[in-house]
Design brief:
Blueprint lengths: L1 H34 L7 E9 L9 E8 L6 E7 L3 E7 L10 E2 L9 E6 L5 E5 L3 E10 L4 E11 L11 E6 L4 E6 L4 E9 L9 E9 L6 E6 L4 E6 L3 E6 L8 E5 L7 E6 L6 E5 L4 E9 L2 E10 L8 E6 L5 E6 L4 E5 L4 E6 L6 E6 L5 E6 L3 E8 L6 H6 L14 E2 L9 E2 L2 H32 L2 H13 L5 H19 L1 H6 L7 H25 L3 H9 L4 H29 L3 H6 L17 H8 L8 H35 L3
Antiparallel strand pairs: 1-28, 2-3, 3-4, 4-5, 6-7, 7-8, 8-9, 10-11, 11-12, 12-13, 14-15, 15-16, 16-17, 18-19, 19-20, 20-21, 22-23, 23-24, 24-25, 26-27, 27-28, 29-30
Helix pairs in contact: 1-12, 3-7, 3-9, 4-7, 5-7, 7-9, 8-9, 9-12, 11-12
Length: 661
């Protein structure tokens, strides 16, 4: 019976131990599985082909749009021909007539499309040869298999002898509020604006206005881009970009930024998602991204990233900007395609020119489907997977130049509008975790070691028996209670008693000093208990021998007891460091949650653990933020593992030096 009981206990203990180890590895595997896709490369998959209608050549296509259902099973391409007819081809799903052509809504009779301006939000404007200018969007309902081009707004521009026919014309807005811009030979630019009338007596009417801006500097205009806010950029054949702020009243200054020292021509312009950063294509096939800056009253464009062209593919002729992120696809003269992401400077994919070069391309709003029109009249669908372009080593660990920033920086700013640029640097979070732990140990270690030395070597055994359990009971205080007291009582108290620093230094009420005291209070029991056990475990014979040789009690403690107990003391401090690194509630409530890099004790911080707690409600499953939080957990896991491993290695060295305790 005894043997059965022993075997049963042995099996149960073995199973429990293996289960704990297996659970740990399973948790690690789960974290790695969720975080790993952040570092996967972008990919593309061919998703079908459609042919232009009989008798229609690629040069007859003025505009092309593409969309796909949420599952990527059905894709639709819409084309607008220069004669004003339009049609759709559907690949997959319900049957539909491929490119059954019909008249485009609002297309003038017998008019021809002259130029098209594409925008990142999926809309596009068409300039007809009679001066009409119309804004369209493609609408696709995959549930009902209905597809159409809808007219958003329309106006007209002057094509008389005074200016000649426009080189470029663009229309933004809607029927009630719209902005039209036409660029003429010689640099004259016409602005036509329609805005709702103000006041109770407006009666729903709109106010029309127009003005001429002279921009004839920097060379002949070769490319143009316009956003909803009225920012107009014109590229020239002299390697300059003309910047015109049409949102200003009165006389408008034209700012000239030379972007290429060798004066190579600007051949394509496009705003990226958000309408702030500008993609610039040049005659050598290079692509660069610029954003506006105004310093000391002087406006200029600043380059954030650039990808050199090889020159063999010819100039960049067209851009397709993503409507979801800061991605953009560039089409070269030879039909080659390159896919870029501006924030991290990645070149996601390259599509070499084939036997039948690409003449036009379209990208849907979610940036997961692309359609290309080749010289042989074939429209090829491609399923795109950008694979978290804002992430990766550069996004997480490298200083980047973000839109509107003066210098490269480590920045964490995960949330904002759909058009905001994600900033996912983990460096401020790692810095905050280490800073909080170091400050906590700077407060806790002297107190804990002093208490351990006193109770072990100087205190009455009766007091030791009572005080040690009392100190260890502090570890039972919930960290949320400590954080609550630190945030609402300790932080204001320190601010009142540190007015000199608050007046003369940048001072956050919830700062590193508050964390040092609050988290140090939580760490003290861990360091104290282990250190006291290590000191008490020193053989009494060593202390007795030191005292017999004439050393004082203090000299014996400092020169004999502490060196002998140093492996255990070091382990205690390192375990306290690991406890501080993983703390969540105290730093969440009392650290201010400001993800900055600063050594100042008067600034707050955000730690990896607090970041997980703060951002978790905002993280959609499978999204970049969701997987980034798993990466934060993985870094915490690796950090604590590295700390414990280093502590164990160092402890063995100390034990070899001072003898086995």
């Amino acid at each position: 019976m005894k043997k059965i009981a022993d075997k049963t206990a042995e099996y149960l203990i073995t199973i429990a131990g293996v289960a704990v180890i297996a659970a740990m590895f399973a948790m690690l595997a789960l974290i790695v599985r969720e975080a790993a896709p952040l570092f996967f490369p972008a990919s593309q998959t061919p998703a079908g082909v459609a042919a232009l209608p009989a008798g229609v050549a690629p040069d007859d296509v003025a505009a092309m749009r593409v969309d796909a259902d949420l599952h990527g099973r059905v894709r639709a391409a819409g084309i607008v021909l220069r004669d004003g007819t339009a049609g759709f081809a559907v690949h997959g799903g319900a049957a539909a007539d491929d490119f059954a052509l019909s008249r485009l809504p609002g297309a003038p009779d017998r008019a021809k499309a002259v130029s098209v301006a594409n925008f990142a939000d999926g809309t596009f404007s068409i300039l007809w040869d009679n001066g009409s200018l119309a804004l369209y969007a493609m609408t696709a309902n995959f549930d009902t298999a209905t597809y159409a081009f809808t007219l958003r707004a329309e106006t007209a521009v002057d094509t008389g002898a005074g200016y000649g026919f426009p080189l470029f014309a663009m229309l933004r807005g809607d029927a009630e509020r719209r902005l039209a811009v036409a660029v003429y030979p010689g640099g004259r630019t016409l602005e036509k604006r329609t805005t709702p009338a103000k006041g109770l007596r407006a009666g729903g009417k709109s106010v029309d206005s127009e003005r001429i801006v002279l921009v004839g500097r920097g060379g002949s205009v070769t490319a143009a881009a316009l956003n909803d806010a009225g920012a107009l950029y014109l590229g020239t054949d002299g390697g300059a970009i003309l910047s015109v702020d049409l949102s200003r009243d009165g006389d408008i200054p034209v700012d000239v930024t030379p972007v290429f020292r060798d004066r190579r021509a600007v051949t394509a312009l496009s705003f990226l998602n958000g309408g702030y950063a500008l993609a610039v294509g040049d005659a050598n096939g290079g692509v660069s991204v610029w954003f506006p800056r105004r310093e000391n009253g002087v406006f200029h464009l600043r380059q954030s990233v650039a990808w050199e062209g090889e020159g063999e593919g010819g100039a960049v002729r067209e851009f397709a900007a993503s409507g979801r992120d800061r991605g953009v696809i560039a089409l070269a003269e030879d039909g080659g395609l390159r896919w870029f992401y501006s924030t991290t400077g990645k070149e996601l994919l390259a599509f070499p020119a084939g036997e039948s070069p690409v003449r036009s391309l379209a990208l849907n709003a979610r940036s997961d489907t692309m359609a290309t029109l080749s010289a042989d009249g074939q429209i090829a669908f491609r399923a795109l997977d950008s694979s978290y372009p804002e992430a990766g080593w550069a996004g997480f660990f490298r200083r980047l130049l973000y839109e509107g920033y003066e210098t490269i920086a480590y920045v964490w700013q995960s949330t904002g509008s759909d058009a905001s640029e994600p900033k996912l640097s983990l460096v401020p979070l790692i810095w905050g975790s280490v800073k909080a732990a170091v400050y906590a140990l700077m407060f806790a270690t002297p107190i804990a070691l002093a208490a351990a030395m006193y109770l072990s070597q100087f205190a009455n055994p009766l007091w030791r028996a009572r005080l040690k359990p009392a100190v260890e009971m502090v570890a039972a205080v919930p960290s949320v209670v400590i954080g609550f007291i630190a945030a609402l009582w300790l932080a204001p108290l320190l601010e009142r008693h540190m007015q000199f620093f608050a007046r003369n230094f940048p001072y956050d009420q919830r700062n590193s000093l508050v964390i040092a005291i609050a988290m140090g209070f939580a760490v003290i029991p861990t360091v104290f208990s282990l250190a006291e056990d290590a000191i008490s475990a020193v053989p009494p014979s060593l202390s007795a021998a030191s005292l017999a040789l004439g050393a004082s009690k203090w000299q014996t403690v400092v020169r004999v007891v502490l060196p002998t107990a140093s492996p255990g003391i070091f382990t205690a401090v390192m375990l306290g460091f690991g406890r501080a690194v993983g703390e969540t509630m105290i730093v969440l409530m009392a650290a201010g949650n400001t993800p900055i890099i600063s050594l100042s004790p008067f600034n707050g911080m955000r730690t990896l653990s607090a970041n997980i707690a703060v951002e978790m409600p905002e993280a959609p499953v499978g999204g970049t933020l969701y997987r980034t939080l798993f990466l934060c957990a993985l870094i915490l896991f690796v950090l604590t593992l590295a700390i414990n491993t280093a502590a164990e290695v160092f402890r063995h060295r100390l034990r070899n030096r001072y003898g086995k305790v």
